[in-house]
Every structure is written in C-alpha cells, then in structure tokens.
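Review box. Two proteins, two foldings.
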Amino acid sequence: MSLTVVVLLLAAATMVLLAVMMSFILGWANQAFHVEVDPRVEKLNGALPGANCGGCGYIGCNDYAEALAEDPQNVAVTLCAPGGESCAKQIADILGVEVTQSWPYRAVVHCAAKSHQRKGGVEYRGEPTCAAANLVAGYQGCTYGCLGLGDCVRVCDFDAIHVVEGLATVDYAKCTGCGACITACPRHIISRVPFKTEQMLVVACSNSDSGPDTKKVCEVGCIGCKACQRITEMFKIADGLAEIDYEQYEPADADMRDAALGKCPMEAMTYVGKPSEKDLAAVADEELPDRITDEFETTVDKTEWRG
C-alpha cells in the first residue's frame, strides 16, 4: 500500500471521527439547551395576520403571540387592529378566554385645515418630507398643523391615508389602526381613537395657542371658546384646546354631540369614519367629470425669476 493511499485513508477516518464527535456534541447541546415552546404560540401565529405592524405594542406578531400564551389573563386578545374582531375571537378560542367589550382603533388626523384655509408661511423648496420641513421655521404659519408632504402616506402598508389639498386624509374603509402613520408624523398630530360607532366626532385641531393667535394662522382652528364644554362634560379645554374624553363617549348621546358640533364657531370639530346613508344620499345627484387630467404644473412654473 502506497503512502498516498495511507494518507487518504487516515484523512477519511479522521473526518468520520470528527463527524461522529460533532453529532454527539450537537445532540448533547440540543438536550442541554432545549427551550420548551408553548404549542399555543404556533396556533396563535396562525390566527394573527402576520402584518408585524407593531400596533399591538409588541415587536411583531410572534412577540404578541408569546405574550398571549404566557399571560392570557392579562394580555388583551383585542390588540391586533389589522386582524379585527374575527382575529380576537380566534385568539380567545385558542386560549380559552372570553373576548371582552372592545372597539377597533382607527387613525385620526387632528388638523382640518386644507391649503387654502391656512394663513402665513413661506414657500418651501427643501426635501419633500414632513420630517425635513418640520425643521424649517416659517414653512407654515401654524406650527401645529399637518405639513402635507406625505410621510404618513409612505409608511402606510394599507394605502389608507393620502394627502388631499395639502391635508393628510384617512380612508376609513382601509385603515386598520396599525399606528404606522402616528410614528411617522413629526408633529404628532395623528392619534388612534376607539371607534364606538362607524362615525366618530373628533377635534380636528392641535393648536394650543390663544384664540386670536390661532385665527391669525388658520380659518378652522380651535380657539378654546368652551362652547362645547358648556354642553357636555365629554369635552374639556386643556391648554386652550378642546379635547374629547372617549371614556364618556356613548353612541346614544348623538344629539348632545351634534349640539356641541353646531356650537363650534370655527368648525374645528368634525365627524370622521365611513359615510352614513345620509351622507351618500346628499351627494347622490352630483356628477363627476368624464375625465380628470393633470395640469403638470409645479411651484417652479409659478416662480418669478429675477437677475
């Protein structure tokens, strides 16, 4: 037998020996470091939509599933906004718990001012993002309003928010309440509201300046006049801005809310949500144009150049 053959045989034997040793080591490690996984976690992951939006307050769906399996009595089964009621029911069935009274949460933009309703401000030519524009002093007269450059639009995975006439506008037929737009807004004027009815009354303003100062920069800003607060305790004025206590918001109190809405001199409150049959009937006879065309006009086209 030649030396070359002997070397090859020794090498092969060494490799086999190493493979056997490694298999024993891996087998031991598998037993020594094995972590028991609750079989319900896999079932819960199957019930969750897998959006990993973080709206539930956990890193992702798997993290939420593990928290549910670990403490089903204290972790709410209704935290998944994209999954909705059907998902909550599946989770409750897996865990053997009951679904408590809850409402879906949806995004609300606390600003109602469209481009033509804003006063003051200068032309902005910087990076077309809300985060960048928010750093520029004087871009808008109101330092609390929607910047209208679409950071919220870009992060929404459900195509549920769009900028219309300079104002972020939520499409409630698509909104899941995941909260991505809330995180993206540099002015923090988007929040989640419990939708106890398909249409909810909201304060569409975030300006906490005095009434006269608010009027200088916005045609529809809240001036803190307390007219709504005098009608029902559901409203309160904090730092010159009306707020709604949704703990006291009851579907049966619609007449009282309508009365408060009618007393608002600035139209700073509005109903948001899916249109009612009354709303649809009001626009049933309106005709849309046959075709909408883009004017292909930018701010540069309107600029007067000198020099």
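Next protein.
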Amino acid sequence: MKIPDKKECFIIINDNKMMDHIIKHSMMVRSVASLLCSNLIKTFPELNIKLAKSAGLLHDITKTQSFTTGEKHSETGARLLAELGFPETGDIVRQHVFLDNYNTNPPVTEAEIINYSDKRVLHDSVVPLNERLDYIYKKYVTNKEFIKHFDSMEKNTYILEIKIFSYLDFRPNDLQKMI
C-alpha cells in the first residue's frame, strides 16, 4: 500500500489550490485522527496511523473546486487520489461524509476515525459533536438529497462516537482540551 507522507500531502494540497481555511481545517482533522489512532492502537494494533493522518490532511482535497463545480468533493477527492496512486487513502476520503457501513462491532477503522474527526472540527477548532452537526445542517442541508441523508448521518455519527470512545480512557468532551 502506497500512502502519501506529510510532504507529499502538501504537494497535492498546493497542486489543487486548496483554500487556506480548508487547509487549516484539514490539519486539525489530521490532529484529531492522530490522537484517536494513537490511543486506539492499543486495542486495534492493525490501525494504520500513517493512512489515517494522510486521509485527514487530504479529506477535503477537491472541496475548493467543488464550490465552483458543485461536484461531490468526497467522490472527486477519492478519484484524484486513486489516479495519483493512493487508492486506500482515496477510499477513506470518499467515506469522510458518509461511511459505506455504520458498524457497531469492532474494530474501529481508519475510515470511521476520519469520518468522526471531520465531524468534530468546525473550521480549525475542535467542537462538541452537536455544534458541528448543527453547522453542517445549516450550511449544507440545502437540497432534498442531502436532507434525506442528514438525519441518518446524524444518528449514525452519535452511534459512531459511542463506539470509538468505548475503547478509550477519555470522553468525547476531552478532545478539545487534548488537541
């Protein structure tokens, strides 16, 4: 498996002209994912921290262009990364908005960690889950397709939070202090 290192991630970011505020958001998502992985790896040694960190940095790689094109940035980001030779990172990027499966059984996966980490970072700050979900609703629930999926995503994200934190010795509200 080929995973872009931090330097390669920033080359990809620069090549795709990501807006500064999206870069800052992505850097914070990477930090949250790194913290979660480094604590979850005790229980799930198969977790690939490097994969999670690269996916955290690149999860919004095509978001800047999506403002103009209206494309689904999770899908175009996944395609871009696959074309660049990073299909595993791209698959996690594809799932950062909606996971393929919301599974309550172990293990905790890199895709779940990135999906959850993104739902905890508003702009470049770690916030409570309800605050971020309220923001997502107000900002993005503007078309019928997303409205249909939002309630399910919200419910599943709270379940995902319970799953992740059942394996940690700190609580969701502790994240803000730990980053």
